[in-house]
Amino acid sequence: MAETTMSAAELAGTAPPRRSNGVIPGFGLTMGLTLLWLSLIVLIPLAGLFFKTAELTPERIWTILTATRTLNALKISFGLSLIAAAINLVLGAVVVWALVRYDFPGRRLLDALVDIPFALPTAVAGIALTTLYAENGWLGGLLAPFGIKVAFTPLGILVALIFIGLPFVVRTVQPVLEDFDHELEEAAATLGASRWTTIRKVVLPTVLPAFLTGFALAFARAVGEYGSVIFIAGNLPNVSEIAPLLIVIRLEEFRYADATTIAATMLVASFALLFVINGLQRWSQARTGRAS
Amino acid sequence: MFLNFKSLAVAGLAAALIAPLAAPAPVRAADTTLLNVSYDPTRELYQQFNKLFAEKYKAESGKTVEIKTSHGGSGKQARSVIDGLEADVVTLALAYDIDAIADKGFLAQDWQKRLPQNSSPYTSTIVFLVRKGNPKGIKDWDDLVKPGVQVITPNPKTSGGARWNYLAGWAYALKKYGSEAKAKEYLAALFKNVPVLDTGARGSTVTFTERGVGDVLLAWENEAFLSKKEFGDDKFDIVVPSLSILAEPPVAVVDKVVDRKGTRAVAEAYLKLLYTKEGQKLAAENFYRPRDPEIAKQYENVFPKVDLVTIDDPAFGGWRKAQKTHFDDGGVFDQIYSN
Amino acid sequence: MSDNSVRSEPAAVKWTVVGIAALFIGLFIVLPLVNVFAQALVKGWEAYAAALIEPDALAAIELTLIVTAIAVVANTVMGLVMAWAITKFSFPGKSFLITLIDLPFSVSPVVAGLVFVLLFGAQGYFGPWLIDNGYKIIFAWPGIALATIFVTFPFVARELIPLMQEQGTTEEEAAVTLGASGWRVFSRVTLPNVKWALLYGVLLCNARAMGEFGAVSVVSGHVRGETNTIPLQVEILYNEYQFQASFAVASLLALLAVVTLFAKTVLESRVHARKGGH
Fold this sequence. Notes:
- The complex is a heterotrimer.
- By secondary structure, chain A is mainly α.
- Chain A is built from 14 helices and no strands.
- Chain A has helices at residues 2-12, 27-54, 58-66, 68-101, 107-113, 116-119, 122-133, 138-143, 154-179, 182-190, 195-224, 227-233, 243-252, 256-288.
- Chain A is globular, with a radius of gyration of 24 Å.
- By secondary structure, chain C is mainly α.
- Chain C folds into two domains: 1-40; 44-277, MetI-like fold.
- In chain C, α3 (55-87) crosses α7.
- Chains in contact: A-B, A-C, B-C.
- Chain B: Pfam families: SBP_bac_11.
- Chain B: It comes from Ancylobacter oerskovii.
């Protein structure tokens, strides 16, 4: 047994770093494959992006990034994503509380529906939302008399981003809230705390990391979103043009330098976000003793 | 349960191994396949024209040919070809986009001289499409800059039609107000009235017609006619401005691709058919202005008479110059847009 | 959910919360979904069927199925491998590795497409060589498959890693001590333990692979009947005034979403049952 393990490890060119890994075989093989696969599909292509950007002078990169249109696109993408994630945080909290704490007819259906944005392709969501919120659509028609225009305005982008980010808060908080130790709440109540105080002082601190994780996930997803947004946005530069669309437009204008620079910037941002998310998840795990 | 699971996994793996083998050779049995990479509003034209060519080719050579098409904003389509989309022929909105492909060595620099009439078998122009009854009273270019008028046009950076729109407006303003500074002011005011900037002509048309945004659409003449046809005469009116531009959408065989694929003869025959009576007739039926005088005469009632400037007018000095002055990085369009 | 007396809010609060939740979900999720089917059937069933058997639509369905099969199988196999490497051993830099695996999740789909154009496009690093030797990657199915694999990269691994971490290594260690080979341990001990989570990951991976738009759009070239996937076909029809046909094709994907959700709900109860048994 030990011999096969070693040969596999040698084949992959890696040796188990620690003896404490014990008896389970296949470290070298699976780690080798993992690194190979990761490199081929993710790391090398992404590195290509940085190499391409590095061909530019720092001044050029700076000019591209500080161009009004780039700045506005980034502002729109990050700003609206932040607002959408915040709305999802609040409304997601309501949804998750209703799903976990209350019993009502249609609860299971509501629960299942939360995942639709995960499963519904973004282009489909895009045309569906646009048709719905256009002035001659079901909802757009209702809002028009009040002077509220959703489709082809930044508000439309917000609607699309809320849609695609909706499941994240609910799905990250749900398991934590389900596992929440009821006795703590009961103890607080026995000690005379009001219901609101109990929720604020006892429940909230436990679920807070999960909430923040959900928020960060929804935000990360929204920043990069393209398919659902381009149909409804109106795509007006400096007003309703998101950063991913600007990348596509720069590409279509043969302006590779601009496209790659903006893309690399967004990539750095997503990487940073991921670290934040992972940190939050570890915090959540430490606090609740489970993976969220 | 577990056994099922395993066999499922094996079946899936097998499918994945077989799929790549099956994919490159689909069940289509055409002797030759051509790819025509075109711009946005030619969808309907080439759908019919491809059928015509396939029939002709079959009758003449006994061989079958299948023509695939790809449509999008003209600039974007050119980018795809430069990036390796294997187009046998390109039929784009303006010469500069094919020049850009030629600059990368895909076809000869003098491509535009290889076919008659600047390699443009049909022409078009820019007109205004307004809502029925013209409620905002839009008659000419000046009406577009009035406060409260919403103008729909695509993005000149990605769309060929939008560049023609822009240049037609420029020509008008230059003629009327006499200086480039004034023309720039005019266009800046015009683009202030643009609420939506789609990446292709078709996207703008959909925004205007189906989504009900805007008071006037700056459109290809053929696209305006088509909208009336699709949505009914009772929805839209076409307004012809006092001055517009002669848009010459050019066609070309992509040397590098046809030589590698061995499809030059078919590709050249395909483009030549556009110049024949049948091809010209089909173009006219799809609201492109035919070049052939005889066919043009047959359809002269369809197309309104417009005063047209050309891209070779001293005001523009050809596409390369126009592109550089107006649409390249830091050009006039960028100046009026960042303000 | 045992004794609720001290842990519940007044009925008025409860129904307000439920009402807001239902309204939110109804407005943002149910209505768009219903709208897809309503628009698809606006001209009746015949027009609906006609839109689906149109040759370009069929070609798009075929391409989508092929690309999805490749992406799902590749990511399932590699997802298992990665989860095994990460959860069954301890090594430095583990959380960094997990972050890298998660990375495609937060990369914009457009960027995902762009990186493959930079590598394999005619102006890219490997493009000229590939094209001279007759390999088509960008604007052909391999490019579409690559972009799809990229965007669905974390889906299976993400489902497996937390569960396998939770399960620990005791069972596998016991099996090895009893003389089982590595493959046997994996197939007889680990796989049965994670099969529902695996299937769940496969399901999500599948749904995303079939529906990916942004990344595929950048590498596709939009050749009708050849490099258009279902979502791209939806966009094309939408831009051709064929709204009903566009929504008809879109309804296939919406149907996929509904089926996915149903299967997911069933799977979840299985996963929960399994966790409860521990």
